[in-house]
Design goal:
This protein is α/β, with parallel strands linked by helices. The protein has a domain of 205 residues: Rossmann fold, CATH 3.40.50. The strands form three sheets. A six-stranded mixed sheet has the order 4-5-13-10-11-12, with helices on both faces. Helix 9 crosses helix 10, helix 10 packs across helix 12 and helix 13 crosses helix 14. It is globular.
Length: 446
């Protein structure tokens, strides 16, 4: 069976542009989305799709063992397998947060560990699709003018683009806000040989520059306004359902910055619902840091108005975005399905991270935003004790070791480390060491 996919206007659902074209917006200026020939896809039964995708999941048959490319027919069906650039993304752990869930009163709590990926974030899911398409355009000669790829980033996007471009041998340029990303994130594009430009602005300023930089189409724009990225990111929604034996959780909490992730989540769920694989959608909560919460403010206004803002300082630096590019898609999906938006203060983020870490997790600050938001929903009685809840963890905690260390060392400005666990300096005297051990055991077991 031959399947097809193309670009169309995301706002109106009209128009058709081939995926081999270099186009990021419709002639009317709206964002694009990738449309699939769902009628052709329906020629295979829902049971047939589940069986096929399960048979490929985490196997070694190239490229279908990837969590993204195992769903190739619903991602990028027309690209030759030999043009795919994959680093075995997806297939990440669905962690049963048993102890933390019981503490919250929600024992059926799961954390989708998207940070357990090649570059340590969920951005790998989208970047494999975008870089594969660019690789295809360059190797097939369909767009001989492309010289490389470029993105603006708060850290994780640049890391993913750099790694996938390096694997394909494609030059990459990344624009970062100087001094506003973690050292671990900064070294990733440097190590992967990207041209790394630290600009004296914030992410929104970098985004404006990269859009101008890619206007002549010599550099292919790799930010999430490019809807190819969404095709990879949407597979996390499909994979969540797949990991629950094709059943749908009651809730999904996901951090939101540039908002491509929440719109991708809805897109993946809508498409497998259209194929008959699921019959309902979960309740979805997009979670923002209070310092960068334009979507939350729009939600609280009853979706009557949206105002960009200048994002403030936040531990959740990857979602420190005041003018999210994917806002129209996210708002449209949230309004259509009754989705919700919550926010978390810096103290709430830090404490949620620390509290969850004490039960065996190791969270990034963005996951802390989602966990803090979940705790509010539980406290208000909106999430019930019998509900199955998934929190999407977007990046590995090791990328933000500086922030986590600062919390425990009482060095985070304005934050009281209520669950701090600093190292204790002692002389090499066994009695003093033994006393510290016993105090720790007593405190832990209490």
């Amino acid at each position: 069976m031959t399947y097809d996919a193309w670009f169309r206007d995301a706002e109106t659902g009209t128009g058709r542009w081939e995926l081999d074209e270099i186009i990021y917006r419709s002639p009317a200026g709206g964002l694009l989305e990738v449309a699939h020939d769902l009628e052709a896809l329906k020629n295979r039964s829902a049971a047939g799709w589940m069986q096929l995708w399960d048979s490929r999941y985490k196997r070694t048959h190239w490229p279908y063992g990837s969590g993204v490319w195992g769903k190739k027919e619903l991602v990028l069906p027309n690209i030759p397998d030999e043009h795919v650039v994959s680093l075995d993304e997806g297939g990440t752990n669905m962690f049963w947060a048993d102890r933390f869930g019981r503490e919250l009163g929600v024992p059926d709590l799961w954390v989708k560990q998207c940070g357990v990926s090649h570059t340590g974030s969920f951005k790998d899911l989208g970047m494999t699709v975008l870089v594969s398409q660019v690789n295809h355009l360059m190797k097939s000669g369909k767009q001989p003018g492309i010289l490389g790829v470029a993105c603006a980033s708060t850290g994780d996007t640049s890391a993913a683009l750099a790694a996938y471009a390096a694997a394909a041998g494609i030059p990459a340029v990344v624009l970062l806000p100087r001094g506003k990303i973690s050292p671990a994130q900064l070294i990733q594009p440097i190590a992967n040989n990207s041209l790394t430009l630290a600009l004296d602005t914030d992410f929104d300023g970098c985004m404006r520059v990269v859009q101008q930089l890619t206007e002549d189409r010599k550099l292919y724009l790799a930010n999430s306004m490019n809807s190819l990225r969404v095709e990879g990111q949407k597979t996390v929604a499909i994979e969540i359902v797949q990991q629950f034996d094709w059943s749908v959780p009651d809730w999904i909490f996901i951090p939101g910055g540039n908002l491509g992730n929440v719109s991708a989540l809805y897109k993946g769920l809508e498409e497998i619902q259209a194929l008959g694989i699921i019959s309902r959608l979960p309740k979805i909560v997009c979670c923002q840091a209070e310092a960068a919460n334009p979507l939350y403010r729009a939600y609280k206004s009853g979706w009557k108005e949206f105002h960009p803002m200048t994002a403030g300082e936040t531990q959740a630096s990857a979602i420190r975005i005041g003018d999210p590019v994917s806002r129209p898609k996210a708002m449209k999906a949230l309004m259509r399905h009754g989705g919700m938006v919550e926010q978390a203060s810096e103290q709430e983020i830090a404490d949620a991270m620390a509290r969850a870490d004490k039960t065996g997790l190791f969270n990034c600050p963005h996951t802390g935003v989602a966990l803090a938001s979940l705790m509010k929903f539980v406290a208000r009685g909106e999430v019930k004790p019998h509900d199955r809840v998934v929190v999407v963890s977007t990046a590995h905690g090791l990328k933000f070791g500086n922030v986590k260390a600062a919390y425990h060392l009482n060095e985070l400005p304005g934050i009281v480390p209520t669950m701090g666990n600093p190292p204790i300096e002692l002389p090499a005297v066994v009695d003093q060491v033994y006393g510290a051990v016993m105090r720790h055991v007593d405190k832990t077991m209490r």
